[in-house]
């Protein structure tokens, strides 16, 4: 009987010891790893930091747009905004015009073969196409010329309004044509040229 009892004790003890030394799998799973906890914290902090940067960036961009939209827009006009003809007319008047205080500047093309004096049948004709620049009044004067395309012009000595007794004769008009002279046109100040261009009307 004692032997059986001792044998029973020996069989029970190992099971008890095994049960104490092996915690359940569920308990192991519920204990968080220090490394895992640290990684979670770092990821969370990085996400918050990234979101904060995005908010700051959006705020900064919005602020910059507001500042730019509040600045006054400035436009600058240069000679590149105008045609070669407009620049030529303005330069010539700026250099040769009798009156620099014009209300308006007019430019008219006169074809080759046109009478110098349309009121006189004995008048000579223009040997080439010319440009006539005038103001709004006779006192403003006039400029009649042809361009050589090289910075020089042929300046004709003809009046805007003809006074006298007609017919004046071909020799009279031929003498006027002989007085035509070549003039070099200076580049001049850009702002002054633009000022006359803005007064210009091409007929």
From TrEMBL:
Region (Disordered): 45-73
Protein name: Lipoprotein
